[in-house]
Specification:
The complex is a heterodimer.
Chain A (H helix, E strand, L loop, with lengths): L4 H19 L2 H9 L4 H4 L3
Chain B lengths: L2 H15 L3 H6 L28 H9 L8 H14 L2 H6 L1 H10 L12 H4 L2 H16 L5 H5 L2 H13 L1 H4 L4 H19 L3 H6 L1 H7 L8 E4 L9 H5 L20 H5 L5 E4 L20
Antiparallel strand pairs in B: 1-2
Helix pairs in contact in B: 3-4, 3-8, 6-12, 8-14, 10-12
Classes of the chains: A mainly alpha, B mainly alpha.
Chain lengths: 45, 288
């Protein structure tokens, strides 16, 4: 019974991308947008 | 796993992703550090209860930023959830999917299999390509899927408007448009099982691409399968698990696993090989 190596490889790549994004401050942009009421999302335009 | 366990996991996941309970009464959203982490399911970050960021909203905002930078962080999160769980996210962790299932439990006329079902499923890939990726890249500062379609955002707007006069005083045409879409989806959920997930959800479309590769996935033991058709009759996403195991539409709800009289199917990291014999008393699953 083999473990799915493709999934593990993709998950490792995902973690690398998250670290790369976090290192360049992209999580701050996510936080900035998510911590304010998104007018488009709630239907106020 | 029995369906009650899955239901409990869905309820706990919905609660955990919306654990800012005081927001429901104050009409204000949570703005702490957890909001920099994307949640796996469709859960609007403007919901007063939301503790995390919506991955689709975050992706659109990154793509529609004035100065484009490849969104490594958000793509990494989506890739992680997809590679780990595939569409098990839809079946276990998505609050909006759970809401549709709850509505579908209400006794009403049910019709889950019809001719247009398969072609309609392609709409979500068109929405993903156009509203989530291509148009946000060209129309700056506008998350088009969130703005014109997302029912989770509309639900968030309704919840906010209850206790936030600034929001309730500004409701206009766009809100009415989105409320109509939400209404259609909720009414359709009475009749069809998870219609938004089947036909419209671009997040499900993304996770579906990983279904074949994800760590947690469906397995079939061909030696045990007797091709009785119980699994395909039980599948409310209308796929045949024997022919299309880990199909992009499979949300890993486990209906097929429970319906199989031979224990030929299982959900997990590896194929389960059981030593138990087929029970002669086990009747095939009653088709819905």
């Amino acid at each position: 019974m083999k473990t799915n190596k493709t999934a593990l490889l993709l998950m490792a790549a995902a973690i690398a991308l998250i670290v790369l994004g976090a290192a360049s401050g992209q999580q701050t942009a996510v936080l900035q947008k998510a911590s304010q009421i998104c007018m488009e999302c709630i239907g106020l335009g | 796993m029995d369906n009650r366990k899955r239901f409990s996991i869905q309820a706990v996941a919905a609660l955990l992703q919306n654990a800012n309970f005081k927001g429901f009464f104050s009409g204000k959203i949570y703005s702490g550090p957890l909001k920099q982490i994307c949640v796996p399911g469709l859960n609007c970050y403007s919901c007063p209860g939301a503790l995390g960021a919506c991955p689709l909203g975050s992706l659109q905002n990154s793509l529609s930023a004035l100065k484009f930078r490849f969104p490594y962080y958000v793509v990494g999160m989506l890739l992680f959830f997809g590679a780990f769980l595939g569409r098990a996210v839809c079946g276990f962790l998505c609050p909006f999917g759970w809401i549709q299932e709850l509505i579908h439990r209400i006794p009403f006329f049910k019709r889950n299999r019809f001719r247009a079902d398969r072609p309609l499923r392609n709409i979500k890939y068109i929405i993903l390509a156009l509203l989530v990726i291509i148009l946000p890249l060209t129309v700056k500062l506008t998350p088009l899927f969130c703005k014109y379609l997302c029912p989770a955002g509309t639900s968030a707007g309704i919840l906010l408007a209850v206790n936030n006069t600034l929001v309730s005083s500004r409701l206009g045409f766009l809100f009415t448009w989105k409320a109509v879409i939400l209404g259609i989806i909720l009414v359709a959920s009475l009749i069809i099982w998870r219609p938004f997930c089947k036909y419209l959800c671009p997040l499900g479309a993304i996770y579906g691409l990983f279904n074949r590769f994800s760590l947690i996935r469906m397995h079939i033991d061909p030696e045990r399968c007797i091709s009785c058709g119980s699994c395909s009759a039980a599948c409310r996403m209308n796929i045949d698990p024997v022919r299309e195991i880990n199909h992009a539409e499979c949300i890993r709800c486990g209906d097929c696993v429970r319906a199989c009289p031979c224990s030929a199917l299982n959900l997990g990291m590896r194929q389960k090989r059981t030593q138990t014999e087929i029970s002669p008393d086990h009747a095939p699953f009653d088709a819905r």
